[in-house]
Predict the 3D structure of the following.
Amino acid sequence: MLKVDNVTKVYKVGTFGGRTMTAVDTVSFDVRPGEVVSLIGESGSGKSTIGKMILGLTPVTSGSITVDGVPIQPGKDYYRTVQGVFQDPFSCYNPVFKADRVFALIKESYYPSVPDAEWTERVRSAIQDVRLNPDEVLGKFPHQLSGGQLQRLLIARALLLDLKLLIADEITSMLDASTRIDVLNLLAELKARGLGVLYVTHDLSLGHYLAERTVVLRRGTIVEMGLTSKVFDDPLHPYTRQLLSAVPRLHAPWDDIEPPATCLYHERGGVGGLLEADPGHYVACAQLSDC
Amino acid sequence: MTTTTTLPTEERVVRREALYFAVRNTKLMIGFGIVLFLLLVGIFGPILANVEDPNEYVAAAMLPPSSEHWFGTTTFGQDVFTQFVYGLRTTFVAGALGGGIAAVIAMVIGFVAGYRGGWVDEILNMLTNVVLVIPTLAVLLIINAYLGIRSVGVQALFIGLTSWPWAARSIRAQTFSLRNREFVDLARLSGMTTRKIITREIAPNMSSYLFMTFILLFGGSILIASSLDFIGLGPTEGVSLGLMLQNSTQWSALQLGLWWWFVPPGAGITAVVGALYVANVGLDEVFNPKLRET
């Protein structure tokens, strides 16, 4: 459904845009209906930029993004089927308006002819779908609600549309552990409804919990990509290995982490510079033994 | 909250809410009350006074305030109260027109430059900087010499066309920072157009700031108008509070102890601008839900 093909994003920086900074470098992957793909990477790896490009909030420098074979055209019709939920729920609401205004905007843009009473019913049922009590959250200002409530309201907002693809950009990083698992389970439900979800995160365990496939991103390029089980159980790229060893574990003492790998993915080949190590399991570096 | 109520549309809610908190805000009510009172004096005072020319010599010179002449008379025997009510009207016109024109230009340029960014921003910024450094006084002298127009309207228009740059710059900066907030992204994801995002997401978010800009421009226009009057570039007919202050200084009201000549216009200017400031603080509380005391 979603196909990201050799996408590159170059920012102009400095006075008069004299210098350039490549945030995303020839990235290709896809998301199928009813599938969660997690995009894992450290801060500054370009994962949020990819999310923004898919949502049409940032233009693509080169390459193409298609949904169902059609190049994306950011606009009203596109956002009927593709939506995003962002990292910081507090900054997603205009603080001078009540939180339920996000629903009113959806009605205004997409369902102007639906009678008010019916719309209220729809909103209430969407809010119940994300396991909130409508009476507790409607008619309140954003600062009167918790981060978890706000984040779930944003998911409820997306549910009001005919959604095919949801870009979830670090949606659980501001939430506490118990709320986080609720939100993750919500995403799993969306998946069961046949939605494609791109789950952008820096948290490996959350990606592992949720995603069918995993894309590991470093400095704007994909270093490894494949089925989550493959990537997590048999990581090929040294960066992936290092990431996995850096995950804090319960019942295990802190251990010295290996120094960062110096592999610069030399001798890249294949599609988007990736090699197919196993069927469906791609890795960046051609000389694995040297890394 | 009852379960049977429908979700009202956002416009209505905002308006009703704002009004609800507005009438309960003491600062706002006091500030607007004073401005409204002076405005009414400026509107109806001249109608009641009903004189042909407020600068007419109507009584003996240098009379202190009395029941006949509420604010006394000048060294020429002009009635200060009559001048005051006419001057108040002129001052409101100059302030509202000058401040209004400047505020509209500043908002259009500030919002567009801040939201669009890129080369649009570069061009508008350049225009702003050019106008910012224009020597207003020299231009006004030239315009005066060529056109010879000396009405309050032209004066206000000139003030409006030259005093917007700093406001445009600050609105641009504010818009620039709001543009990168995620609720703007979310508005875009709700299918809103750029114009709608500016008028319905960004502008309401900084509405008290915009109002403050207007108040500052309003007060600034009054002060600029007074200075222009002072150097003889003001309107030739009629009277304004600035002109009254200037005349009182010129004819040594301070040295002669004619306090009733310069206190009313000075207090008038201070009251209008000061009351607008107080109202602005109250308005901030009305527009910003976090500052409300509930």
Remarks:
- Chain A has a mean pLDDT of 83.
- The longest strand of chain A covers residues 19-31.
- Chain A has ten helices and twelve strands.
- The longest helix of chain A spans residues 177-192.
